[in-house]
């Protein structure tokens, strides 16, 4: 077991997407006997998988998984129903519309943890306890991870990976020109380094951000950097003190960091903001480690084909060295899935050792399983594997681990207002109110 897990929209759908529910009498039994291939007969001729993996390493990793799935299930037409929008900001709205219309995809992506509980409570996903035993996933995934993705003793999703949210990406040449010789180890040091970049290179953004979700991602890492792992985890428990002066300090630090990014320089999406670092237009960007997949994957697959430690470098987000802010992309079996046998074959692919070792090196994440082929994880991912095994772990807010959807949405709204008025007192009061109203 690699480690202990300690804690666990903005658009309207243009209309429910019609789902063609055709079945087939054709039987196509997956080949092979390794874990992930023993799903039994696949009696469906089609499967629809819903995700938000549409760009860079995530899209390339998904295509590699689809290719492997098709090899094992040659008679199944794979429908990739991915919806663009970083962190699922758009996809979740489309998915909600479909679920309300009783037109579910066969399997859909969600973040492991509290985010999935809304779907579970609404009866929109099937429990997977028997599936886990059949596939050996009850032994392949750490007990601590299975606990985090279970609800009332039942498990409802298959995690494809483990991501780290709290990563600081930077351009080595830009920071060196600013006289910065090492990555900042505290939030205060980071603010000082941002100022050095601003003073020495006025044509370079000290830090880049994208649309609103990327600023919430940044806020999360600043909060962890100032409060520490225990302080962050405590905020998501019943009776938490969101009015604490340490929270006030973290909000002020976030406001100061954001002052180095004029609103006119907010990028359209996370890829554009991250690419600014590669292009030397920005010194720093705080983003999850899916950025590593985007930076290093081929141009043909939508990546930038850059070299780690030369074109870009990384460190734990300021103040979070020794803390792993984790999240996991998981897939479900939708209640009423039109093609359940093909959907289970997809979940088997996602959960298998081969599937995880195919997908994660491309995506820029590490496997959820404990039996990975370490030789496949190089550069950033080698570092991430080591850190996962020794760091203190905290659950990501923005990426669904610690907050249910109602709580998440209330914080979304509070931060959206904060980005307009920069009123620290009002923002903190809104955070206090959200915790009181929405905490389970």
TrEMBL record:
The keyword Signal applies. Coiled coil: none annotated. PROSITE patterns: PROKAR_LIPOPROTEIN (PS51257). Residues 1-21 form the signal peptide. Keywords: Signal. This is ABC transporter substrate-binding protein.
